[in-house]
């Protein structure tokens, strides 16, 4: 089995951007779980939520992650913000991958997601309150990750360097 690095965190923290750069640097495949779901379902995440509901979305998300995690490839897997909250998904990821929590302050996330309407959980009038509630609920669970980086405090290049150093140390420890 090859190495899978899973990036978890709230929407808008930079998981996909950082993940793409990390994959290019390491020569890994990059998969964005939300994009993969949209490609397979031939619908946007918003459309899936509207037509089938969040429960359906979380089930196909869990199944997708379970399938990806068994691939014999080096993969950087950027997860949707709620994926790691599922107990079974979290167990599988902790067992089979290096889990990295990517974070940023709520103000930064609000600037990044702005007025985009492609975030079903933010399709309400008070985005700040919603993000603060998600952070309060999810941060203790994200805290079970192997590593944590703040994209507001460090450049992508600095984070990638630290991840590479960590991977080398893990390899040398074996």
Using the alpha-carbon principal axes, give the shape: globular
By DSSP, the count of extended strands is 5
Strand line-up in the sheet with most strands: 2-3-1-4-5
Secondary-structure element string: EHEHHEHEHHEH
Count of separate DSSP helical elements: 7
N- and C-termini, Cα separation: 16 Å
Major sheet details: 5 strands, parallel
Percent of residues in beta strands?
5-15%
Layout of strands and helices, then pairs:
Elements (H helix, E strand, L loop, with lengths): L3 E5 L6 H12 L2 E4 H9 L3 H24 L6 E4 L8 H10 L1 E6 L2 H8 L13 H16 L4 E4 L5 H18 L1
Parallel strand pairs: 1-3, 1-4, 2-3, 4-5
Task: Fill in the keyword field for this structure.
7 helices; alpha/beta; 5-stranded parallel β-sheet; 174 residues
Question: How would you describe what is shown here?
Answer:
By secondary structure, the protein is an alpha/beta fold. The protein has seven helices and five strands; from the N terminus they run E-H-E-H-H-E-H-E-H-H-E-H. The chain has helices spanning 15-26, 33-41, 45-68, 87-96, 106-113, 127-142, 156-173, and strands spanning 4-8, 29-32, 75-78, 98-103, 147-150. The model has no long low-confidence stretch (mean pLDDT 89). The chain has a five-stranded parallel β-sheet, sandwiched between helices. Helices cover 56% and strands 13% of the residues.
A few lines on this structure:
With 174 residues, the chain is of the alpha/beta class. The protein is built from 7 helices and 5 strands, in the order E-H-E-H-H-E-H-E-H-H-E-H.
């Amino acid at each position: 089995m090859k190495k899978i690095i899973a990036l978890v965190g709230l929407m808008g923290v930079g998981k996909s951007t950082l993940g793409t750069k990390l994959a290019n640097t390491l020569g890994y495949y990059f998969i964005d779980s939300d994009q993969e779901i949209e490609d397979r379902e031939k619908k946007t995440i918003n459309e899936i939520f509207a037509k089938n509901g969040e429960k359906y979305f979380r089930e196909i998300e869990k199944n997708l992650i379970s399938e990806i995690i068994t691939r014999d490839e080096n993969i950087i897997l950027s997860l949707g913000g709620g994926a790691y909250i599922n107990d079974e998904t979290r167990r599988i990821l902790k067992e089979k991958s290096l889990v990295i929590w990517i974070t940023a302050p709520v103000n930064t996330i609000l600037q990044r997601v702005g007025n985009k309407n492609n975030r079903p959980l933010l399709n309400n009038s008070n985005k700040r309150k919603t993000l603060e509630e998600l952070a309060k609920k999810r941060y203790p669970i994200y805290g079970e990750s192997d590593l944590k980086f703040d994209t507001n405090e460090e450049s992508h290049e600095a984070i990638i360097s630290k991840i590479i150093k960590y991977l080398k140390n893990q390899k040398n420890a074996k």
